[in-house]
UniProtKB/TrEMBL annotation, chains A, B:
Domain Nudix hydrolase: 138-279
Domain of life: Eukaryota
PROSITE patterns reported for this sequence: NUDIX
Organism from which the protein derives: Lepisosteus oculatus
Protein name, entry field: Thiamin pyrophosphokinase 2
Membrane-spanning intervals of the chain: none
Record-linked SUPFAM superfamilies: Nudix
Pfam families: DUF4743, NUDIX
GO MF entries: 8-oxo-dGDP phosphatase activity
Organism classification: Eukaryota, Metazoa, Chordata, Craniata, Vertebrata
Record InterPro entries: DUF4743, NUDIX_hydrolase-like_dom_sf, NUDIX_hydrolase_dom
Length: 308, 308
């Protein structure tokens, strides 16, 4: 028994276990013990568009002309009949909460709006400041780009970015070549071209070679709220004599790494977790994992695509 | 108002709506109104490995030396301590139920065993006759192959099979080039090579070009029970001068179709539903859908990968 305990302590955690753990972390909202049972549905115009944690419900109850917090849900007042009215009323409340310094996430106020709707394809019901979306658990959408190149021998290598130390989130961590949120009134294709240029100086003629291949979808929670997110995944094969360059300063360096190294590093604490999912999706689609040798093959695929 | 009602009645159902409906049908076990709340967990050696519908629980209660049906679950007797003992005991019960003609699905008895385990990578707990698995809602795994070829102009065309009229399930419907269940003591790679040869006369040297790219995972129910299934998806690019041929008679014809035609037909009643999912996964991975123009892009990806 002592022997087996020693063995267990010594046995290194496998790549597969680390990959599964990564996906569990990003789907923490669905794990037993999460705040999910305590969260209230956030309802706008009869549709659930998010989840509000209890501590936020308490604060919103003070603004009864905007939020109705009785009956186990947080409902935006039906008297706010239009997109513009809803957006303005919520904005007023959020600026007040920010002024009162009620929530840490509002210190990261960006003056950047995200659309709120039940499904990405629905007509938006209102626009909400980006830094506040986790207080309401509203879905956020982004674009992530796997940048890769094909060597003369056919082997793929991947461009990996290292985030600037001045980024408010995940400073210094590894990331996809390009990634960004889909803001109000912007298409996914526009977001892709804009972020390619801003973050990595990739000209439009190359950015347009990016091909849509998947989404990764997941919901996690932390002390700043609930994060249901879906990233539209693109593969962008860049010419082998092309290199991304530091653009707006969100990235401090780009590395061109063989897939073995990328596979190893994606399960390390060095990689931004949701971006690591995008790389994992790439590994699966490009046959770097085989179901006879990857024990959690099915679980990994499913863990990348949870309903929001 | 009369005008808008007329308009609604006349508006054709879009491809996107049909695709979403396809995925809903294959995940019917998770829809409101399904039998899920009435099903009992099927527990073997302390682990849930399936879902037993109420009508099956009733029958199993007669075999109390094999199944313990108290307390809201169906538990295989812990006195059956080994894989061999469990397999034999369950087989005896199933042959009895078959003789008594209790369940229609057992008329399709195949003398083909599937492994039962909580996860595909776990050590199997017992083996169960294939035609009985839906009575216990045990997970089934299969291999599906997207066979395609690249024309001189770079366009892809896909090989689609038409199932034989003598098949017990989905006779005459369209299907993937090759597909088959993963039986006991067979690897996924072995299943792939075997089915390629048997169903489509594809020699091993070509079958081995198949690349693992994904899974599709879903759970549906019908009057024969509960079907949690996961298919390991492979893409197989065959040379453009190669054509699959009818093998063991499970297929009556092979067609080589442009992707536009394949896309259209996959949402029709002509396509075997779970095989249509495999084609949909191909369309997504090969950029035949774009998130700016496919309104349910995120929902389609998620619907292909539900946890079992």
């Amino acid at each position: 028994l002592a022997g087996s305990a020693t063995q267990m302590a010594a046995s290194p955690v496998s790549w597969s276990d680390k990959a599964l753990r990564l996906l569990r972390g990003l789907n923490s909202f669905y794990l037993p013990g999460s705040s999910r049972a305590q969260c209230c549905p956030f309802v706008v115009s009869g549709q659930q568009v998010g989840w509000v944690p209890p501590v936020v419900v308490q604060e919103l109850a003070r603004f009864s002309e905007v939020f109705q917090t009785q009956g186990g849900s947080v409902e935006l007042s039906p008297s706010l009949g239009s997109y513009a009215e809803r957006s303005a009323a919520v904005d007023t409340v959020l600026r007040c909460l920010r002024e009162e310094n009620r929530f840490r996430c509002l210190r990261g106020w960006r003056e950047e709006k995200y659309e709120v709707m039940a499904r990405c394809c629905d007509q938006p019901l209102l626009a909400m400041e980006r830094s506040a979306t986790s207080l309401f658990g509203v879905k956020r959408y982004g674009v992530h780009v796997n940048g890769f190149t094909r060597q003369a021998d056919g082997q793929l290598t991947m461009w990996v970015a290292r985030r600037s130390l001045s980024k408010p989130t995940y400073p210094g961590l590894l990331d996809n070549m390009v990634a960004g949120g889909v803001a109000c009134r912007t298409t996914i294709a526009e977001t892709l071209v804009k972020e390619c240029m801003e973050e990595a100086c990739i000209p439009e003629c190359i950015a347009k070679l990016a091909r849509p291949v998947s989404t990764v979808s997941y919901t996690y929670e932390d002390d700043e709220g609930v994060f249901p997110e879906s990233q539209f995944v693109f593969d962008l094969e860049v010419p082998h004599d092309f290199a991304p360059e530091i653009g707006d300063g969100e990235v401090q360096a780009f590395y061109l790494w063989p897939m073995d190294k990328v596979k190893e590093v994606l399960v390390s604490a060095e990689f931004k977790p949701n971006s690591a999912m995008v790389v994992l999706d790439f590994l699966l689609r490009h046959s770097y994992l085989h179901p006879d040798t990857e024990p959690y093959y099915q679980e990994l695929v499913v863990g990348l695509h949870r309903p929001l």
